[in-house]
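User: Okay, second chain of the day. Same drill as before: sequence in, structure tokens out.
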Amino acid sequence: VGLALQQGNVVNTMNPASYGQVDSLTMIFDASVTGQLTNFKEGATRQNAKTANFDYIVASFRAWRNIGISVGILPLSDVGYSYQTTSTVSQEYGKLTESYNGEGGLREAYIGFGWHVLKPLSIGFNAGYVWGDLDRSVQTPNSNFGSLMKSYSVSVNSYKFDVGMQWRQPLNKNNVVTIGATMGIGHKLNADPKLDIINVSKTDTTSHKISNGLELPWSMAVGLAWQHRDRLTIAADAEMQQWSKTSFPTYVNDAYTVSKDIMKDRLSLKLGAEWVPNANDVNHYFNRVRYRFGV
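Assistant: Same drill. Structure tokens below.
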């Protein structure tokens, strides 16, 4: 969660309005790399996979009074898979094995501004450059139907723009409620998806291309946070991404076209809490630890 959180010592890219609360005496630098070991099992077959991913690198600092700036690189999507499926077509043709492979991803380099306009109100925006390559393929190697491969690829160079606001309302000297909201601008990515249908046995290739065939969805999100003293914070976020209204390229009936009924809207609901026994206790380390829970 983070849409309604204001912390001067954290780079909160979920809501750019939070940059206006950055501490005037601090420059924050944050980076993350993730490693993952996965075990796959299907029937009697087992396989281990190791992956390492660069997650993000961000920084934040105070530019002027009540104005904060953040810059960084964030992941927008990651693609990485390789597997096979086998199915029986008929007694005449026997079994059909298909291999699926995908790799690539999109990244966003952004600069964001946050302005603490009034005592309760902060606003901000992130403006980003999005780039990357996406490649995926489906192949039927050495089957009775011949060796056929469909190769999908696209290169993206576009922009991304998000706006946000936060309203912080003290209830009394011990309790504060904050409301946050963000909106992401949906638009075409100016990317041209390409499909190559390759008959490996005949060394024959048929190519298809769609002009401006990918887009980002409009997104709306709201968050609510309650903070009790400096010890307990409980927050909730809800976000809707309108993927059902975006175009996506599909190959149907020997035609490579875009369609708007491929994907469904995405709704995410999050609830989180943070508790610190005593952040100012210099003698006991575990009293300064921030314990977090979420679902």
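The helical segments are 285-288.

User: Thanks, on to the next one.
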